Fold this protein.
Amino acid sequence: MQGRQRGMTFLGILVIVIVVGAWVYAGIRLVPVYLEYVRVAATLEKVRDEYSSNPGSTEFELRKAVERHFDIEMVTIIDSKDIEIKKDGGVFSLRANYEDTVPLVYNISFLLTFDKTVEVAAR
């Protein structure tokens, strides 16, 4: 009496390898963009922490602080001029809102939208 065969065929293994490989490749392409966003968000939070105890801050000081931290963190995706700074009453609102396109293969790309807002006390 013959036993039943078990296991996967070569075609089944090949399909699984292709699917997993595609996900890994997409992850490899996306991770640097998300790490850049983490640096942008960390910069805004550092500026908030740095100037939260100084309610006499001005928009110019905040923009220069963002620029300085972008240089330190080597943020290249956006510039300090791209940070939207608004004063509403006694609070400055720093907002980084941007999009990035990551090419995947041929004409297929990922469009990623990032938005980070922090508030800093003002006069």
Strands lie at 84-88, 91-105, 108-121. The two ends are 89 Å apart (CA to CA). The chain has one domain: 10-121.
